[in-house]
């Protein structure tokens, strides 16, 4: 019998995660899986459970929780010889990884998707000595997003990040950045730098309409020190999926990127606090297999 591990964050979303475990167990049992359930209680629990699943040869790991739980689960796969298939039941705020793969945001329907036989080979990013599934953000705005409270996430969803970001935009702070990408270099003050693997960031699914989860590329945005008026036009561009064409935005794709600064600059990785600069980014093409909905 095949082995499946459910990694669940019982406090994710509207704190209803645990009620889905029994349903997920039933769906997996019907697919001839022997199911192990592990609840997270503290930081990095999901990573430790995921490492165990790799080392013990599990066939499937299912992350039930938000982007933070998924981020930790993915990091258990780093430098492992065996990678279980990944299943995702999104219960978080933005759920960008799930959105990009068209995994249903309704948890019960997402659980039904675990019975799908359709697998997708998906790119994963590497930042220094850790992995990420969706986005790395650099700058004062990026740092502030790490402080969004669980209460605001529960009440406001993706708007919680927008609310916190708007606070920063009233008095934006630009930092001098040195960005090496493939064979090129960019050096100037920037309000925000984004390196993205998918088309969805912060719940906005049209940021990069042509980005694919398996294109082997980092889609990068350098946002310059915008005035409040230009910020309004940038927001419109964000909603329309044309941000990369905005006059105050530098857009490029790359396989490898390094970012440094003479100042202390914070980062945000998949919605969680990341390391301060410098950082080195790369893509692991089609690195993991993810269960996605059946094709009609």
What attributes does this structure have?
six-stranded antiparallel β-sheet; 9 helices; 296 residues; 27% helix; alpha+beta
Question: Can you walk through the features of this model?
Answer:
- This protein has helices at 21-30, 45-55, 67-75, 96-100, 107-113, 140-145, 150-156, 159-169, 228-240; strands at 2-8, 33-39, 60-65, 85-90, 119-127, 130-132, 135-138, 175-181, 184-190, 192-196, 218-223, 249-254, 256-260, 267-269, 272-273, 279-291.
- The protein has 296 residues and is of the alpha+beta class.
- A 6-stranded antiparallel beta sheet has the order 6-5-16-13-8-9, covered by helices on one side. A 6-stranded antiparallel beta sheet has the order 12-11-10-7-14-15. Strands 2-1-3-4 form a 4-stranded parallel beta sheet, with helices on both faces.
- Helix 1 (21-30) links the parallel strand 1 (2-8) and strand 2.
- The radius of gyration is 19 Å and the shape is elongated.
**Helix and strand pattern:** EHEHEHEHHEEEHHHEEEEHEEEEE
Which regions contain 5 or more consecutive residues with pLDDT less than 50?
152-164
Q: Please state the overall shape, judged from the principal axes of the Cα atoms.
A: elongated
Summing up helix and strand content along with how strands pair, one would put the structural category as alpha+beta
Biggest sheet statistics:
6 strands, antiparallel
